[in-house]
Amino acid sequence: SALSAGVITRKDSFKVVTKEAASGLVMGIILGLLVGPICHYVMGISMHVSTVISVTLPLLSTIAAFLGSSLPFVCVTLGLDP
Question: How far is Cα 27 from Cα 34, in angstroms, rounded to an integer?
Fold first, then answer.
């Protein structure tokens, strides 16, 4: 990986994690806008549940991207090989 090769250092962690979290948010918004209406109109799920799905997807995607990009930096900080 770029972190093991030294291309990215711990100083770059804020920039990398922020970019990854932002891309996770954008992906989650796109998924929420697509999946919510499909759940309601195609699958017949209630509007309340479809709204919860549409709102939850961006949140979960952002959290997943944040954790996925920050864990290698945590490993390097703890002296573990990412």
Answer: 11
